[in-house]
From TrEMBL, chains A, B:
Lineage: Bacteria, Pseudomonadati, Pseudomonadota, Gammaproteobacteria, Candidatus Competibacteraceae
Organism field: Plasticicumulans acidivorans
Assigned keywords, A-Z: Cytoplasm, Methyltransferase, S-adenosyl-L-methionine, Transferase, tRNA processing
Record-linked CDD domains: SpoU-like_TrmJ
Name of the protein: tRNA (cytidine/uridine-2'-O-)-methyltransferase TrmJ
Family label: Belongs to the class IV-like SAM-binding methyltransferase superfamily. RNA methyltransferase TrmH family.
InterPro entries to which the protein is assigned, alphabetical: Alpha/beta_knot_MTases, RNA_MeTrfase_TrmJ/LasT, SpoU_MeTrfase, tRNA_m1G_MTases_N
Length: 256, 256
């Protein structure tokens, strides 16, 4: 009854008790994989106490230094945000988020749900690494959801979606054996964005001293389309080609 | 944006931290009224610490000695149960539970969501006081949901249902000025059940030494139908009449 391939990523959690409570919420809802990005204190007795029987999740948790490391191999990385909108990515409600995740999992993809710090959430730079955002509707007068409570709500919606999918007996659509028909992973997506930025700077289209929102808008555009690996390869091929042409053009005119 | 008339009732909570976390979850989702049945330690610094800004909910919380006191005036009392079935009451999923609650609230009714002890939940006697049960689907291999996490999930579903109702602009149907067209309150329901039992015992239909499941089955039957106050009055009138006839009959035959 466990739900595979949905990774819970907690970024720089301050209170180990919250890590334990998140692990318990995960296990209750049948999620298994916990990744901690630079936690303040882990392992910690408070984490074990609040996990209350979900110690196996804590024992198997991976600790990494940065968010991109936590997201390697993921086709989707959905960031939990207290703000309903952010320029870089499409924003989902919990139910839509869960449907997206279980659909991806049924196709054999690996996904991540990303949760930020207790007080300040995820930074804009971290949100930029997410392919979508999810916003849990809260009382506008008191919107600071505890991080483990946010994990609980989204894991619950994932379980509900998973059970519905099982009940309606939707046949899983495994990704084809051709790796190019698979959706791009987050790291492939990042390489594309970096490549785009490189080209934008090289061409003078982007002034690195006055970047404005250009890269964020590009991220938004490409994140929304859910690129296939093949499409990333095509785009990057094109970018490389423009770089080659530009260099070639310079060589032609400057003679170097 | 607050949601009125939905009471959260916590029965004999052991850990004050859970009371605080429940208050925070309530406030996040726009619920206001907390009633504590015989809490082990309250007020308590751990409750305030975990409430994290929801101190107003804690300050306004009522402490009572028994579950029936907590439920006075409620048209619905939905008990959270780890077991999906219980003989006495109809069992709901969280989404159906939320729709039932917000529908009742829109008609001006007061409702309660009831949560049991950390280790043992609600007793059968307490479940009997509930008009419906709600079961949060969990991993069967690890189903012990933290009490504040259960409050969080159900309060979240209530908020989602409330927002949907607001978005679809369903006009509220206030209860008529005639108190008899209103649904029966939990205490009126209890009086009916007690009256039924009295009659069942008096008539020899129920052996108090071997009660089996009779009263529970009766509860289930009447709870499922969601009685109006008027209907309770009619039923109790009928019960009184049978008692009067019986006494009258005895008087006739025994001459006392």
């Amino acid at each position: 009854m466990n739900i595979p391939r949905i990774r819970i990523v907690l970024v720089e959690t301050s209170h180990p008790g919250n890590i334990g409570a998140a692990a318990r919420a995960m296990k209750n809802m049948g999620l298994e994989e916990l990744v901690l990005v630079a936690p303040e204190a882990f392992p910690h007795p408070q984490a074990s106490a609040r996990a209350s029987g979900a110690d196996d999740i804590l024992a198997a948790a991976r600790v990494v230094a940065t968010l991109p490391e936590a997201l390697v191999g993921c086709a989707l990385a959905i960031g939990s945000s207290a703000r309903p909108r952010h320029l870089a990515a499409e924003s989902l409600e919990p139910r839509g988020c869960a449907a997206l995740l279980t659909g991806a999992v049924a196709r054999g993809e690996t996904c991540a749900l990303v949760f930020g710090r207790e007080r300040t959430g995820l930074t804009n730079a971290e949100l930029d690494h997410c392919t979508q955002l999810v916003h849990i509707p809260t009382n506008p007068a008191y919107s600071s959801l505890n991080v483990a409570a946010a994990v609980q709500v989204l894991a619950y919606e994932v379980r509900m979606s998973w059970l519905q999918r099982a009940a309606s007996d939707v046949p899983a659509q495994p990704a084809g054996s051709d790796p190019f028909t698979a959706p791009a992973t987050v790291d492939e997506f990042e390489q594309l964005i970096e490549h785009l930025q490189q080209v934008a700077i090289e061409t003078g289209f982007l002034d690195p001293l006055k970047p404005k929102h250009l890269m964020r808008r590009l991220r938004r555009l490409f994140a929304r389309t859910r690129l296939e690996a093949r499409e990333v390869a095509i785009l990057r091929g094109l970018l490389s080609a423009t770089q080659g042409r530009k260099r070639a053009g310079r060589r032609d005119s400057d003679g170097d």
